[in-house]
Amino acid sequence: xxxxxxxxxxxxxxxxxxxxxxxxxxxxxxxxxxxxxxxxxxxxxxxxxxxxxxxxxxxxxxxxxxxxxxxxxxxxxxxxxxxxxxxxxxxxxxxxxxxxxxxxxxxxxxxxxxxxxxxxxxxxxxxxxxxxxxxxxxxxxxxxxxxxxxxxxxxxxxxxxxxxxxxxxxxxxxxxxxxxxxxxxxxxxxxxxxxxxxxxxxxxxxxxxxxxxxxxxxxxxxxxxxxxxxxxxxxxxxxxxxxxxxxxxxxxxxxxxxxxxxxxxxxxxxxxxxxxxxxxxxxxxxxxxxxxxxxxxxxxxxxxxxxxxxxxxxxxxxxxxxxxxxxxxxxxxxxxxxxxxxxxxxxxxxxxxxxxxxxxxxxxx
Length: 365
Ligand code: NAD
Hints:
single chain, alpha/beta, Isopropylmalate Dehydrogenase, 3 domains, 10-stranded mixed sheet, two-stranded antiparallel ribbon, 12 helices
């Protein structure tokens, strides 16, 4: 029986990297019946929303999805479809492994980190009050009446909320991941010295949860210092667990340690559903140019195959990607020594090279 998997191609460079990934997964020999469904700005004229109910229904039915990036307008317009998807499906853990492959250009040789980002709470909860609106002015008054400072009348407000239950499950997820994959240490990242009731709570709960995992080391770090430590000595870290916003930012920093957004995969996981997607966004300036690196999304496909229990196919795909990168011939511009290297190939040719590697390993077995 083939797996039935929802495939959301995404927009910008999404359709190109999605197609490359679909072909590579099929080349592993794992049978998949793809349910291809569009979301984002392009479906608004037809459905009146960037996230129509049938997209969610498809993922609920199939339980597993892989998606290309979706553009979110900055400042105004609709809220992030990516954030809404995570909320609707309770995908509370964002897992972003950052492994440096041989042949990728990076200042570091020895990076093998896992970023576990909380996906539901924090400043991403969507509790916002626009500048000057009556409710915002009332809120400003209420804050003052409750003993808070008199904030400026022309302030916009975003609420940061971090709960005990939300923190418990993400920190447990990080420890369970560490145990399962034989990792040594979990570092909880926070700014508890300043935000005592949100990040302070995160730290306190993380410490409590850590007591239940005496076989895994635990430490904590303040986020600004963590950024410096990661840049100076990333080899000291193993599993990082972070609230939503720091997790978002530190994921990109860690992607930078392993060669850039082109090679960074990810998964959004809950207790019932899983949605796999690269760390990168829709890179609009490269849309339709068959130019960007499909590796981030393909490695997300590797994570998906592991999730499905198809470990051999996952290893075969990962090896093929690693071999093509190490050889450095059929790779996209971002993996060449110079960005304007004329020998760089496009998304689909890099995918072809990976697929022919997979076929070679299948034949020689
Ligand atoms: P981005 O990740 O799309 O691109 C930033 C830069 O990174 C690109 O200009 C490019 O130089 C490089 N890059 C990204 N992907 C690459 C790849 N596969 N290969 C080679 N280089 C690559 O970030 P952005 O420009 O800040 O965001 C663009 C849009 O994507 C925004 O609307 C944002 O909201 C959205 N976004 C979506 C997701 C998602 O769908 N999960 C994630 C992040 C951003």
